[in-house]
Amino acid sequence: MRLTLGEGSTPLLSAPRLSKRLGLELWVKWEGANPTGSFKDRGMALAVLRAVERGAAGVVCASTGNTAASAAAYAARAGLRAVVVTSGGAVARSKLAQVHAAGAELREIDGSFTDAHLEARRLADEEGLVNVNSINPDRIEGQSGAAREVLEQLGSAPDVVALPFGGGGNTVAYAQGFGELLPRFVLGEAARRRDTFASAIRIAEPVHREEVARVLERSAGEVISLSEERLASAWRALAREEGIFCEPASAAALAAVETAGLRDVRVVCVVTGHGLKDPDAVP
Known about the structure:
4-stranded parallel β-sheet; 10 strands; alpha/beta; 6-stranded mixed β-sheet; 18% strand; Rossmann fold; 42% helix
């Protein structure tokens, strides 16, 4: 069996105007081109397929939005039940629309994303569902393919790869995909993790914090905390200087590059989700 909605093989776009302004060679890995509009589709296709192969009763996830939309779509494609747990009022309306359209069961709880994550784990244990959050190694394996695409598209490894830092699963996946060709990792997180307007990275306690720390140690990388103003500025720059309309959380990668003061290096900025995923957050 093959389970796909056409995920992967996303463009690696040169960013000439930003490159000139920043004094480096900047490329954008445009993950908003995936079927549900975010990078989550790469890992979800594999995680849901493996759930089907194992005879699971369904899948469950906690989500700030993109995981929910992706899980709902791929579960529908596979004919599986999907349960999505969210923190009440914390998910963009467009992402909830995707969940409802695909027929997933939505359970909103009072509490944080961490609380939602614990509830998803409980449901997996008690109802025989497969948890398809990034704690599932199939998700990481599927997402690691993006790094291998970068190597193929560039012809070699970049000097730096920049990513948004919410839960940290994508950082772990890219490190796995690059393998021995690991570039320096520069991660952008919201300084206001609990209430940032960039809802996709509104995660107070990163699930993969320890694994991310090991990736940063191996790659001589760093995490840069970003103000709301810096995130908004980078979001505008991607749209107005390069025509790339992303959701605000995705701009954390560019904001981190701008803040890090990099010069004369080749950088791949991973832009993780389409702007239509969170239009109400646009400042």
